[in-house]
Protein backbone atom coordinates (compact mmCIF):
# COMPACT_ATOMS: atom_id res chain seq x y z
CA UNK A 1 0.00 0.00 0.00
CA UNK A 2 2.90 2.39 0.54
CA UNK A 3 4.01 2.13 -3.08
CA UNK A 4 1.02 4.06 -4.52
CA UNK A 5 1.43 7.17 -2.31
CA UNK A 6 5.19 7.05 -2.87
CA UNK A 7 4.70 6.86 -6.64
CA UNK A 8 2.25 9.78 -6.57
CA UNK A 9 4.72 11.84 -4.54
CA UNK A 10 7.52 11.13 -7.05
CA UNK A 11 5.34 12.01 -10.04
CA UNK A 12 4.28 15.28 -8.38
CA UNK A 13 7.86 16.24 -7.54
CA UNK A 14 9.21 15.39 -10.98
CA UNK A 15 6.38 17.20 -12.74
CA UNK A 16 6.87 20.43 -10.81
CA UNK A 17 10.64 20.35 -11.33
CA UNK A 18 10.19 20.05 -15.09
CA UNK A 19 7.73 22.93 -15.30
CA UNK A 20 10.08 25.27 -13.43
CA UNK A 21 12.87 24.97 -16.00
CA UNK A 22 13.67 27.86 -18.35
CA UNK A 23 15.41 27.33 -21.66
CA UNK A 24 18.16 29.85 -22.36
CA UNK A 25 18.57 30.84 -26.00
CA UNK A 26 21.35 32.77 -27.71
CA UNK A 27 22.21 36.44 -27.52
CA UNK A 28 19.38 38.71 -28.74
CA UNK A 29 19.88 40.67 -31.96
CA UNK A 30 18.63 44.00 -30.57
CA UNK A 31 21.32 45.78 -28.52
CA UNK A 32 18.87 46.80 -25.78
CA UNK A 33 17.05 43.46 -25.57
CA UNK A 34 17.38 41.08 -22.65
CA UNK A 35 18.41 37.47 -23.07
CA UNK A 36 15.76 34.86 -22.29
CA UNK A 37 17.65 34.12 -19.07
CA UNK A 38 17.45 37.78 -17.98
CA UNK A 39 13.78 38.12 -18.91
CA UNK A 40 12.73 34.70 -17.65
CA UNK A 41 11.92 33.71 -21.23
CA UNK A 42 9.21 36.37 -21.46
CA UNK A 43 10.65 38.66 -24.16
CA UNK A 44 11.02 37.77 -27.80
CA UNK A 45 14.52 38.12 -29.21
CA UNK A 46 13.17 38.64 -32.74
CA UNK A 47 11.17 41.76 -31.94
CA UNK A 48 11.54 44.65 -34.37
CA UNK A 49 13.54 47.68 -33.30
CA UNK A 50 10.72 50.23 -33.34
CA UNK A 51 11.73 52.26 -30.28
CA UNK A 52 14.23 54.63 -31.90
CA UNK A 53 13.46 57.59 -34.14
CA UNK A 54 14.13 57.15 -37.82
CA UNK A 55 16.79 59.43 -39.33
CA UNK A 56 14.79 59.75 -42.58
CA UNK A 57 11.83 61.50 -40.90
CA UNK A 58 9.54 58.49 -41.07
CA UNK A 59 7.79 57.31 -37.89
CA UNK A 60 9.78 55.21 -35.44
CA UNK A 61 10.08 51.69 -36.83
CA UNK A 62 9.23 52.69 -40.39
CA UNK A 63 12.07 52.97 -42.88
CA UNK A 64 11.97 53.45 -46.61
CA UNK A 65 14.95 51.12 -46.93
CA UNK A 66 13.77 48.46 -44.45
CA UNK A 67 13.83 44.98 -45.91
CA UNK A 68 10.58 43.20 -45.18
CA UNK A 69 11.09 39.47 -44.79
CA UNK A 70 8.65 37.02 -46.34
CA UNK A 71 7.34 34.34 -44.03
CA UNK A 72 4.26 32.82 -42.46
CA UNK A 73 2.48 35.92 -41.18
CA UNK A 74 0.00 35.27 -38.38
CA UNK A 75 -1.09 38.91 -37.97
CA UNK A 76 -4.75 39.55 -38.65
CA UNK A 77 -5.77 42.56 -40.72
CA UNK A 78 -6.77 44.36 -37.52
CA UNK A 79 -3.39 43.65 -35.91
CA UNK A 80 -1.59 44.86 -39.05
CA UNK A 81 -3.65 48.06 -38.99
CA UNK A 82 -2.83 48.56 -35.30
CA UNK A 83 0.91 48.07 -35.84
CA UNK A 84 0.94 50.55 -38.72
CA UNK A 85 -0.90 53.08 -36.56
CA UNK A 86 1.52 52.49 -33.68
CA UNK A 87 4.39 53.15 -36.11
CA UNK A 88 2.92 56.62 -36.78
CA UNK A 89 0.79 56.10 -39.89
CA UNK A 90 -2.84 57.16 -40.07
CA UNK A 91 -5.76 55.79 -42.03
CA UNK A 92 -4.22 52.50 -43.24
CA UNK A 93 -6.27 51.25 -46.23
CA UNK A 94 -6.52 48.40 -48.70
CA UNK A 95 -4.46 46.03 -46.54
CA UNK A 96 -3.91 42.71 -48.26
CA UNK A 97 -1.46 39.92 -47.51
CA UNK A 98 0.74 39.18 -50.54
CA UNK A 99 2.12 35.78 -51.65
CA UNK A 100 5.16 36.27 -49.35
CA UNK A 101 2.99 36.81 -46.26
CA UNK A 102 3.64 40.57 -46.15
CA UNK A 103 0.73 42.89 -45.41
CA UNK A 104 0.72 45.69 -48.00
CA UNK A 105 -1.48 48.74 -48.39
CA UNK A 106 -1.48 52.52 -48.18
CA UNK A 107 -1.54 54.94 -45.25
CA UNK A 108 -1.17 58.64 -44.60
CA UNK A 109 2.01 60.22 -43.24
CA UNK A 110 2.79 63.92 -43.21
CA UNK A 111 -0.27 64.68 -45.29
CA UNK A 112 0.82 62.31 -48.07
CA UNK A 113 -0.37 58.86 -49.03
CA UNK A 114 2.46 56.30 -48.87
CA UNK A 115 2.71 52.59 -49.62
CA UNK A 116 3.31 50.58 -46.45
CA UNK A 117 4.20 47.00 -45.59
CA UNK A 118 4.33 44.81 -42.48
CA UNK A 119 6.24 41.53 -42.31
CA UNK A 120 5.76 38.51 -40.04
CA UNK A 121 8.22 39.91 -37.48
CA UNK A 122 6.28 43.15 -37.13
CA UNK A 123 8.74 45.26 -39.13
CA UNK A 124 7.10 48.21 -40.86
CA UNK A 125 8.36 49.77 -44.09
CA UNK A 126 7.16 52.71 -46.18
CA UNK A 127 7.98 53.60 -49.77
Task: Describe the protein.
It is a single chain. This protein has 127 residues and is of the alpha+beta class. The chain has 2 domains: 47 residues, no CATH class; 80 residues, no CATH class. Helix content is 24%, strand content 21%. Strand 2 and strand 3 form a beta hairpin.
Q: What is shown here, in short?
A:
The chain has 127 residues and is of the alpha+beta class. It is 24% helix and 21% strand. The chain folds into two domains: 1-47, no CATH class; 48-127, no CATH class.
Features:
127 residues, alpha+beta, 5 strands
Give the total of beta strands.
Answer: 5
Using only C-alpha atoms, the radius of gyration works out to 22 Å
The total tally of domains equals 2
Beta-strand residue fraction: 15-25%
Helix and strand pattern:
HHEHEEEE
Mean pLDDT: 73
- Reading side by side through the largest sheet, how are the strands ordered? 1-5-4-3-2
As a percent range, the share of helical residues equals 10-25%
Could you list the spans in which at least 5 consecutive residues all have pLDDT below 50?
A: 49-53
- What coarse outline follows from CA principal-axis ratios? elongated
User: Helix- and strand-based class?
Assistant: alpha+beta
Number of helices: 3
Biggest sheet, open or closed, and with what strands and sense?
5 strands, mixed
Termini distance?
74 Å
Architecture blueprint of SSEs:
Elements: H1 3-19, H2 36-39, E1 62-63, H3 77-86, E2 90-97, E3 103-109, E4 112-118, E5 124-126
Parallel strand pairs: 1-5
Antiparallel strand pairs: 2-3, 3-4, 4-5
